[in-house]
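Priority: medium. Attachment 1 of 2:
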């Protein structure tokens, strides 16, 4: 509630009402960061794997299927 003849700003009105406008923005930013990290995680990542490893796995799977190369 402002005084007579004084304009009430958004910040002063929010502080009187107990509203925290930045809290919503901060939670949105936090959720966005968490979602981006979650989406970038490679579920098939093998820390022990090398560049040649996929070819070795494919060769083993081909042999297991009974198709000699």
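Attachment 2 of 2:
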């Amino acid at each position: 509630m402002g005084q007579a003849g004084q304009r009430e700003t958004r910040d002063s009105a929010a502080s009187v009402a107990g509203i925290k406008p930045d809290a919503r923005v901060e939670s949105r930013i936090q959720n966005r960061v968490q979602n981006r990290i979650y989406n970038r995680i490679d579920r098939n990542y093998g820390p022990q794997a090398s560049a040649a490893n996929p070819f070795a796995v494919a060769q083993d799977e081909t042999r297991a299927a009974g198709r000699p190369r």
